[in-house]
Amino acid sequence: MKPEQQLDRFLSTLFRYVEKAVLLLVGGLALLAIGQLVMGVVGNGQVKLEDVLLIFIFLEIMAMANVYFIRHSVPFTYPMFIAVTALSRLIVLQGKNVAMENLLFEGGAILLVSVAILVIRFSQRYHCDEPERDESANTEHAAPRPPCG
């Protein structure tokens, strides 16, 4: 094997392990953040909607890291779900003393991202290439795909 090929192979392996280590770190930090939130809720003696939404954001981050470990790719919609949850949390945190225009812009952003998720999901369903395997989907009752060409 040529030295250049050996270097490419070494770097590819190195990056693969660094990537897995960083994903473990992200998942671990998200788990730690959830623990800190739970301890804060216990310390305050009350559960707030913003805490629950933040826990959902951390759970979605952990799910995204898990999906990457399983599939070696992340569906583009996962970060979009995180964005919708983060925008919802922003609206909750602002309270009632926010300008009406800001609320409309933030609601519009949620609508825009939600429509984008639907478009992406719809286009993936009718894409001509072989779809990614989704273990949670029931393939027995899946809609037939249109012919490509």
TrEMBL record:
Q: Which GO terms describe its biological process?
A: cellular response to phosphate starvation
Where is the protein localized? Cell inner membrane
Query: Which membrane topology term applies here?
Result: Multi-pass membrane protein
Sorted UniProt keywords: Cell membrane, Membrane, Transmembrane, Transmembrane helix
Which domain of life, per UniProt? Bacteria
Please give an example of a GO cellular component term from this record: plasma membrane
Which residue ranges traverse the bilayer? 21-40, 52-69, 76-92, 104-123
* Family recorded in the similarity comment: Belongs to the PsiE family.
This protein is called Protein PsiE
Species whose genome carries this gene: Candidatus Thiodictyon syntrophicum
